[in-house]
Prior knowledge:
Blueprint: H1 7-17, E1 43-47, E2 50-53, H2 54-72, H3 78-108, H4 115-127, H5 135-144, H6 149-167, H7 178-187, E3 193-194, E4 197-206, H8 216-235, H9 240-247, E5 258-263, H10 269-277, E6 287-289, E7 292-302, E8 305-306, H11 309-339, E9 342-343
Antiparallel strand pairs: 1-2, 1-9, 3-8, 4-5, 4-7, 6-7
Amino acid sequence: MRTHLTISVCLVIFFTACGLLGGAEPNTAEPNAPADKPKADEVAVTVNGVAILESDVEAKIKPQFEQMTKRIGSQMPPAFIEQYKTQLKQQALDTMIVEQLLDEKVAADKIVVTEEDVIDQIKEMASQQQPPLSLADFKSLIAAYGQSFDEVKQRIRRGLSYQKLVEAQFVGKINVTEDDAKKYYSENKSKFETPEQVRASHILIKTDSADPNADPNQVKAKAKAKAEGLLKQIRDGADFATLAKANSDGPSAPKGGDLGFFSRGQMVPDFEKAAFELKVGQVSDIVQTQFGYHIIKAVDHKDAAVIPFEQAKDDILKTLTQNRQNELAEKFIESLKAQASIVYPAGKEPKTDK
């Protein structure tokens, strides 16, 4: 079984374990609530003589498993939920084996992560959230998940020690050249093609009604009359964005109706046809779709194009370098596993990939 643990994952596994990435929900359970333990606290696997217990694995998967069952558990058959839990346990156990091996190697190589390293990493991680967080915001978020800042710092310290360990394996082994980038560019031309795009704003007047007794024809007639009135105001010089904010039934209303850039195939056909036929700054007549009546304004336009190599080169070099780093990191992990004594109790051996 292959373990895909790259340099970036070394950090992410700890951030996600803290519930701080990926949109997880705050912890509403009692702090430090015990995990559901097996009847007997059995050994799941032994790594170089160190036992990883079944209860350790259960504790690791508990937040993710509870989050899933809370969201969709009642909609899924018990057999599916049990299968999902089995998969989570195997993934967690694989990760815990690698963590143990990395911990041993970090200690052997005497790798040190300073307090400053940890705080810098936390600040960087917090700044990348949407919206960006300050260090104080980050601490408040951690508290909302029922965790202590010191515990999270220890997890991040551990992840950074893994990163330093794995990065040491790259020295002198990565040599990505411009020729490599040119080869990648020529073999992946489609990745550098950008389709024709238009940026449009719209005002939507819906033709459905919350009143089940309403006459559909009257609702549609009223909606069309409203759309026609708004179009007349626009033709007379009224500000499109202002009218959209005040009148549009679409979710883009708070942004003045702005839909951003989109290419063909992303909108319903009648809307798309009208939007792509407009010149920049031009406003359409009323366009009817299954959503209602639209007034569309073309804000910007981009012709189909191919990104030239010189413009794409830096990103390609970064991609190829990251790919090489990932390959080396995976080989390093596999070498640690090959040299280790990993012993499963009888009957608990993992299924091998076919």
